[in-house]
Amino acid sequence: AQSVTQPDIHITVSEGASLELRCNYSYGATPYLFWYVQSPGQGLQLLLKYFSGDTLVQGIKGFEAEFKRSQSSFNLRKPSVLWSDAAEYFCAVDLYDKIIFGKGTRLHILP
Amino acid sequence: GAVVSQHPSWVICKSGTSVKIECRSLDFQATTMFWYRQFPKQSLMLMATSNEGSKATYEQGVEKDKFLINHASLTLSTLTVTSAHPEDSSFYICSARVRTGFGGELFFGEGSRLTVL
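Output (structure tokens, whole complex):
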């Protein structure tokens, strides 16, 4: 069955440090993948998406993600996190008629 | 990006009453809207897919008679929680796709927090 797995429930990094949030997917064909961010009590905002082509995609707020077919992964990265990046991050896969989400990774930032 | 508006942002109701939540796409026509439920500190659980002019498609385990979804126009979908009980308290989020099919980006409403007393 198609699924999205985010292995880390919580991640804590220091402000200014680099960040990598993991995402693994299970899908039979070439997946369409998304990363969304959710601030507390808010809806979700799209950070970036991968459909095809270049496997390294750039998003908003300085985020990027790399699609690796061999590892079935689509990890989100940022070279230097800000205090304001503290939020919940969701990886998602497009199943054509709907989009399903991973369980999310909550990012905590240490000052 | 496209804007999806959800109303109300929060609502408190008594057990046994019904509550309606509206989801509007403000600057685009949404053939398909989705309703998610999110428990505290958990992921989004897809409840149903709402297609304009047709019956909603509910995910397994979601009670159709409890959560009534109507998609009367290309810009409006409503979720009605009927005979609400405290266990229905949750954060409900709607989203809309600009187009159906692969790659159609999802735009989300701000969410509605329902508290049933």
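The first strand of chain A starts at residue 3 and ends at 5.
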